[in-house]
Amino acid sequence: MPSAAKLAVLPANATGAAIDPADLLTADELAARLKVKPAWVDGQTRKRAKIRHKEPLPVLRLGKHRLFSWVAVSEWIRRNNA
Q1: I want to staple 2 with a disulfide (CB 3.0 to 4.6 A). Which of 6, 15, 38, 73 is the partner?
Q2: Distance between alpha carbon 27 and the CA centroid of its chain, in Å?
Q3: Residue 36 contacts by C-beta under 8 Å, 6 or more apart in sequence?
Q4: Which spans in the chain are helix H?
Q5: Total number of domains in the chain
Q6: What's this model's pTM, rounded to 2 decimal places?
Q7: Strand ordering across the sheet containing 24-25
């Protein structure tokens, strides 16, 4: 897992605010919070998901690590269920 010092310099989220490292989740943590299987999260973030979905699940890729901003995922859910 990347160190907190590295996470503090993440890019801004969709609202333009800096991403708070405390709001970042791993794929397993996101799956548990959404009450879905981790395989669903993996499927929504694969490169081919962009082909199937106009707006795939937002993910931050840091090398081999995938992290999810709970704020960005919440906005994504709201937009896709409007």
Answers
A1: 6
A2: 8
A3: none
A4: 4-7, 27-34, 38-45, 49-52, 70-80
A5: 1
A6: 0.71
A7: 24-25, 65-69, 60-62
pLDDT tens-place string over residues 10-66: 455 555 667 788 889 999 999 999 999 999 998 888 877 667 777 888 999 888 889
What residue numbers bound the domain in which 39 lies?
A: 20-66
| Residue 81 domain flag | no
Is 15 within the bounds of a domain?
no
Element (H, E) at 61: strand 60-62
First-to-last alpha carbon distance for the chain, in angstroms, is: 34
* In a domain? residue 14: no
What amino acid is encoded at 57 in this protein?
A: L
